[in-house]
Structures
1.
Amino acid sequence: MSIAPGILFEVVGFPITNTIVTTLLTDIVLIVLVICISKTISLRPKGIQNAIEMAIDYFYTLTEDTAGKKVSFIYPWVLTFFLFIVISNLLAQFPGFESIRFHPVNYSGEEGVPLFRAATSDLNVTLALATISVIATNYLGIKHIGIKSYLSKFVSFKMFPIFMFVGILEFANELTKFISFSFRLLGNIFAGESMLSQMYHLFPIGVPLPFIALELMVAVIQALVFAMLTMAFMHIMTDKPQH
Amino acid sequence: MEILDSFGLESSLFLFQVINFLVILAILTKFLYKPLRNMMDERKRRIEQSLRDADEAKSALENAGMERKQILASAKKDADEMTALNKRQLSVEKEKLTQEAKEHSQQIIEEAKEKAVVELENVSKQAGLISVDLSGKIIAKVFSNLFTEEDKQKILSRALDKIAKGGYEKDSN
C-alpha cells in the first residue's frame, strides 16, 4: 500500500485521486447533514438534530471554558475540523474502502488502485488542514491582539538576549505545527488503514473486528486531538504576550 | 523534495483541499452552527423565561393567598366595626324613639287631663244652671199658691242671690 494517493483519472490536467473522492464523499455527508438539519430544525430537537446540538454544545462549552469570551470565533473552526476529520475517518471504516479497486487508464499493475481511501491518509489533506489551522490561528492572533503585540511574540529585545531566543523558539514552534498537525493525523490514519488492509488479507473473518473497534476509537480521538490543539493554539495566540 | 514526492504531495491537490475545507467551513458556519446556536439560545432563553414565570406565578399565588387572608381579615374587621356601630346607633335611636314616645304620650295625657277638667267645669256649670232652673220652677210651682206675686219675687230674688253667691250649696251641705 503506497502512502501517496492513487490517481484514478485526470480532469483537464487535474488529478482525481481516491482521497479526493473520499473528500467529496465527506463533503456530501456534511452537506446532507446541513440540509437535513435546515429542514427539520425546531425548538424541540429530535433525531439527528439532537446529536449535532450535542456536538455543538460540547465544543462550545469546552471552548468557552478554555478561551472565555473568544469562544464565538474559535469554536466554528474547532468544530469544523472535528466534523470534517471524524466523518472522513469514520467513512474509511465502511466496507469497500481499499477493497473496491479501480483500474486507471495506462495502469500497469494487476490489483488496480483503491477507489476509496481515507482522506486523512493523504498528506495533501492533512497538510492542508494543518496549514489552515496555523494560518487561521495566526490571523486571529493578529486580529485580536494587534500586529505589534503579535510580532513581539517572535521579536523582542527585552532582557536581551533571553527573549530574542524565546522569540526564535516561538517561530520554530509555529513552523513545527505544520509538521506535527499533518504527520500525526496522517501517521495514525495511514497506519490504521494499512494494518486493517493487511488484516483483511490475512484473516478476512473475525480477527479484524477488534482492530476495527480500535480504528473507530483512533478515528474519533485523532479528530478530537486535532480540534483541541487548534483550540488551544488559537486561545494562546489570541492572548497578549506577558513579556 | 523526493520525500515529499513519495508522499504524493502536489500543489494542485493541496490547494483543492484548502479551498474545499474553507468552503465547508463557510457552509457549516452559515447554515449549521449559526441557526443551531440561535435555536439553542432561544430554547435556553425560553426555558429560563418559563422558570422565571413559574417562580413568579408561585410567588404571585402565595401573595394572592396572603392577600386573600388579609382581605378576609380586613373585611371581617370592617364588618365587626360596622355591626358594633349599627348596634350603637340602633340603641341610641331606640332610646331617642322611646323618649319621644314617652314625651308624646305624656303630652297626650296632659292634654286629655286639661280637656277633662274643662269638660268637668262645663258640665258642672250646666248642671248648676239646670238645677237653678229646675229649683226655680219647683219653687215657683210650690210657692205659687202660698205667696203673693210680690213675695214670690222677693223670695226668688233672695234665693237666686244665695245661689249666685254659693250660699245655697253651703246651706244644703
2.
Amino acid sequence: MRRRNAIAGASARGGLLGRVDIFARGLIPILSLAFLTFLAAVPLRLPDIELLTPAWTLMAIYYWAIYRPELTPAIAVFGIGLLKDLLAGGHLGLTAFTLLIVYGLVVSQRKFLHGKSFGVVWWGFMLVAAGAALLKWIVASILAGWPIDPRAQVFSVLLTIALYPPVVLGLSQIHKAAPPQAGTE
Amino acid sequence: MAQPLRTLAQRFTFVLLIAAAIAVMLAGRTDPRIFEEARIAVTDAVAPILDAVSQPIAAVDKLTANVIALRDVHQENQRLRLENERLLQWQAVARQLEIENQQLQSLLAFQRPDVERFVTARVIGLGGTFVRTVIISAGSQQGVRKGQVAVTGNGLIGRVSDVGSRSSRVLLLTDLNSRIPVMVERTRSRGILIGNNTMHPRLEYLSANSGVVPGDRVVTSGDGGAFPPGIPVGSVARMDAQGLEIDPFATATKLEFLRLLDFGLRGILAEETPRPR
C-alpha cells in the first residue's frame, strides 16, 4: 500500500528524489508512534502522584488507525507494542496484544469515525481507552495469577483521556506532512 | 480487483500477529528470563535518548519550584521589586543548584560502614502502569551489578534487576514481583514485604501476636542474604486481618537520583529472584 502511494506520488512529482521523499514522509506516523513510546518511559515527576503514565502510544494508534491505517500496518503496531513492553519491563507481548486489538477494532469502525466531529471521535477514544485498560488489566491479572490493584490503571485511563486533545492537535499537525492518500478509501 | 485478496491477506497477517503476541506472553510467563537479553539491549540502546529527554523535564520541574518560590518572594518585596529583579535572577540560578545539591547531599547522608562501594545514578526512565521499575543511567561500565541495593536518602527503594552496559533497571519495592525480607524494628518480628503496584506494599507472613502498632518502623531483616539487615524501609500505616500496609520512606515520585550499594552479598536473590515480567 505504501509502495503504491509512493509510486503514485512519484509519478506526480517525478524522479527518484520525489519517491524517497514520499517514502520518508510515509514513515511519519510510525515515527510519531515511536516518539510517544519513548515519551511514555520518561519520568514526568508529577507532583506527589503515584507513578502514572498515560497511554501515549494508544492515543496515536487510535488516531492513525482512523485516518491513515495504510501508513501504520498491523506489523508496525505489533513492533511498537513490543518496544513499549521491552522499555517498560513488563510482560512482553501484553501491550502488543492490547494495541493490536484496539487497532483491529478501530480500523473496522473507521468508516463510522472518519470525518466525524472531534467530540464524537474523542467519545470513541474514551470507550477505546477504557476498554483497552480493562483488557490489559484482565490479561495482566491472569499472567500475575491474582487480581492486580486497579487504581493506578483507572487514574492512567483518566489522564489518557484528558491528554488526548493536545496530543491529537500535535498529530494532526504532523499529519499534514504525511504524503496524501492515494486513490479512494 | 486485488482488493478482496489484499483484505484477506491483511486479515491473515492480523490474526497471525495477535497469535504471535499471545505466544510471546505465554513464553514470557513460562520463563521470564528468555527475553532478558532483548530487554537489556533495548534499554541500553534507548538510554541516551531517555537521558537527553529526561533532563529538560527535570529542568522544568525545578523551574516550577522556582516560579512558586519566586512568587512568594515577590509578594513580600513588592516595593523593592525593581531593585531585587537582578538579584532574583541570581536567586533562580542558586535555587536550582540548591535543589540539586540537597538531593545529592541527602544521598550522601545514607552512609553505612559495611558498604563495599556505591554508585550514584540518575533516574532516566519509568516502567508502565503494571510495572514499578525505573531505568537508571549507570550500567556494568559504572560497576552496577545485579542484586545491588538501591536507596535514596530516606531509605530502601528497590534492587537492581537487569544490568546493561550503560543502563540498568531497578525493581522498586512497590512492584508486584518484589519480595523483601523485613522486620519490625521495635518488636523484631519478621515478615515479607510484598509489592502490590500501589504506594503501600504489604507486610505479610508476620509472626502472630507480634504487638505491632501503626507508626512502627520497618527495616530489612537480612534473611536470605540478599539485603543486609537494618536498612530503613518504611513505617506501618494500617493493619488488617491479612497483614500490614507499609508507608515506604522512599517513594519513586519525583525521584531524580538514587544510590546503589554493594554489600558484597551474593545471596540467593542475586541469581534467583522473581524478575519483572
